[in-house]
Amino acid sequence: MGYIFGVKGLDEALVDSIRDGALVIITGHPGSGKTILASTVCYTNSLRGKRCLYISFQEYRERLFRMLSRLGIHLEHAEDEGFLEYVRLPVLVKSSQLVDEIIKLVSKSDPDIIVVDSITPLMAAMRKRVSARSYLQDFFHTLASKFGKLVVLVDELMPGDAKKSTTGIEFVADVIIVLRHRVVRNILIRELEIMKARGSSLSVAKAPFTISEGHGLQVWMPVVLEEIPARGEEVISPPCKPFNDVIGPLRRGDVVVVSHPPDASPSFVYEGPLGLITARGLRGYVLSFMRPAKEILDILSELWGVDKGVLEAKLGDRLVIDSMNPTATETAQVVAYTVESIRAIKPDVVVVDGPDLVYELADRKEYISALYNLIKWYKKMNILSMRIVAETSPEVYNVYARLADVVIRFQKVEGGEKTGWRVYMWRVGREPAIVSHEHVAECQKMIRQEVLRVLRD
Ligand SMILES: Nc1ncnc2c1ncn2[C@@H]1O[C@H](COP(=O)(O)OP(=O)(O)OP(=O)(O)O)[C@@H](O)[C@H]1O
Ligand SMILES: [Mg+2]
Questions:
Q1: Candidate from 26, 55, 66, 67 with most ligand 1 atoms within 8 A of CB, to mutate
Q2: Fewer CB within 10 Å, N or C, the chain?
Q3: Contact of 456 with 306, CB cutoff 8 Å
Q4: Ligand 1 pocket, 64 CB below 6 A?
Q5: Can you identify the CATH homologous superfamily of domain 8-219?
Q6: Which ligand approaches the C-alpha of residue 38 most closely?
Q7: Is the shortest distance between the CB of 63 and ligand 1 below 6 Å?
């Protein structure tokens, strides 16, 4: 019979790997979330009618239950319903005594799941007695395999100890999950690793996770390359001739890069993507790393000469504008957040404003691999994605242009009395072309007219 972890990303990654007779080890640094994960397993399965025995050598019931209930894990409720027994035991030095105690508890309540949190002090107490340790390991293994229980053991890793556990029980385990945390730019980043998963074909083994009020533990599995539809349907037909000639219609799954000099006025870069989403009645999600959502609305309101309140009301929830401070986060978290937002909003078009800021703050390899995966995911999800990138260096431009299907690159032309623009446009499989500013301005005017028509209705 199958169990669940009760953690979305983890259950997707580890389909059917925890069942009767499985031995699961949750190991990790102090404060990394081991108790929360073990309790989540207990609680979510109790909601499915499984009985859980939670043996703790560490936590006082009241304090633990209070901490967990803020995370949405209501052990008290499970206890009241008769699906949970929480027992706090002192560390018994004699392994036989401990085994007797556990056997007594197991035979009394006949649970489906047994959690021991944690085995580290027990094993440490038997450090010098190899036979006692193997006796205990054998006992847990037997409890799982012979008696058909799901056994979840929590094990502790010392900080700095990358992988080694102190107990050596890993060898008989079916599933090993390692929880770690580190501090990046003053932010606590949590990471989960699936080190072992018997009987499960894993494609992803490491992922960031978060612990938050009301949501508990959430794992943010990276996107894996899967089947990608060849070419999506048309979402945006070109508003004007140069677009049509050089780029043609924008389709679902297309990856568009709109690049501009870092000192260029933002209004014209927003007008194309956001104007087209608005004019064509599409559902759009804008994630800006550059400026707060309110400021983007101000820009649009000024650009279109429409009162901000009216604009907000007209856009409704069709155009969701969101922002994130790139210095307060990390690549993996950005990806996790983006994917989660998109799953909730289900947009036709996603516009990312200023991803270059994230790139410049991130580890290069990590960022490019995340970007690559994210782009494949957009294609798989049939979403047209656009990135508005400030071309702070040729390198930054190249990172995005290389992965794009369509490039729209604004370039300043200086000469004579005034500065003008020209636009380099390209679509994969076609010849690139340079379009003059007049033509682009013409396009923008057409988009604006369309937008105003829609906003006036
Ligand atoms: N309400 C909450 N919101 C956000 N984070 C929380 C909340 N409650 C607890 N945490 C986080 O959960 C972590 C503790 O989780 P847990 O007790 O499961 O860790 P652990 O690995 O079992 O620790 P230990 O090694 O001390 O037993 C802490 O880092 C704490 O910051
Ligand atoms: Mg703990």
A1: 67
A2: C
A3: no
A4: no
A5: P-loop containing nucleotide triphosphate hydrolases (3.40.50.300)
A6: 1
A7: no
| Pair of tokens at residue 405 | 């299907």
Residue 51 Cβ contacting ligand 1 at under 6 Å:
no
Q: Which ligand is nearest to the CA of 64?
A: 1
| Tokens 């038997």 belong to residue | 126
| 8-219 and 234-456 agree in CATH topology | yes
Nearest to 126 by CA among 87, 176, 168: 168
Domain ranges of the chain: 8-219, 234-456
* Residue 283: half-sphere exposure toward Cβ, Cα within 13 Å: 10
Kind of pairing between the strands at 187-197 and 175-184? antiparallel
Please tell me the distance from the alpha carbon of residue 282 to that of residue 349, in angstroms, as a whole number. 7
Residue range 188-198: mean pLDDT, rounded? 87
Residue 333: which H helix or E strand, with range? helix 331-345
CATH homologous superfamily of 234-456: P-loop containing nucleotide triphosphate hydrolases (3.40.50.300)
pLDDT at position 335 = 84
Contacts made by residues 139-145, CB under 8 angstroms, sequence distance 24+: 139/99, 139/102, 140/23, 140/116, 140/169, 140/172, 141/23, 141/172, 143/102, 143/106, 143/114, 144/21, 144/22, 144/23, 144/174, 145/21, 145/23
The pTM (predicted TM-score) of the whole model is 0.71
Instruction: Say which DSSP state 211 is in.
Output: E
Ligand at shortest distance from the CA of 179 = 1
> From ligand 1's centre to the CA of 83, what distance in Å?
24
* 34 touches ligand 1 (CB under 6 Å): yes
State if residue 177 touches ligand 1 by the CB under 6 angstroms criterion: no
The pLDDT tens digits for 309-329 are: 999 999 988 999 999 988 877
